[in-house]
Amino acid sequence: MAEDLHIVRGTKEEQYRELIPQIKGLLEGESDLIANLANIAGALKEQFNWWWIGFYLVKNGELVLGPFQGPVACTRIRKGRGVCGSSWEQARTLIVPDVEKFPGHIACSSYSKSEIVVPIFRNGEVIGVLDADSEFLNHYDATDQKFLEEIVSLIPEESWK
Ligand code: SME
After folding, report:
1. Residue 77 near ligand 1, beta carbon < 6 Å
2. Distance between CA atoms of 85 and 76, rounded to whole angstroms?
3. Which of 36, 71, 101, 155 is least enclosed by beta carbons within 10 angstroms?
4. Architecture of domain 12-160
5. What is the predicted pLDDT for the residue at 2?
């Protein structure tokens, strides 16, 4: 597998369409969870250069910080708290155009202005979330939702064992 990512310009959709096969290549044949989540975060950071991109995983009833790219972040989030804990509780993707208008938003960084959180499911349960933060307002939309949901579904089943 080539470790160099091919970065493309173009529409958001074109960028995701070029990136997804490369993420598949990075995950192929690798069963280690940390390695796979780290490479997904790295690939998304390289392609989109978002302010913060990473994972929180459900451990002992709370979300615990996992592999990420960006500034240091809060390590633990309770169910129903912030955008991540709300996405977990509601078991659905949340797009927040302006984090200041989201009641209970957890400000890990004052630079973060908008956010998308995508739950990761296994056997019908949320087992973690993918969180992306932007320093720009209104940065994430249905295109991000569609492709990020696809990307988290690519995490190999063996990674969770
Ligand atoms: N803002 C998130 C917390 C995680 S950080 O943004 C990395 C939230 O409200 O859940």
Report:
1. yes
2. 10
3. 101
4. 2-Layer Sandwich (3.30)
5. 58
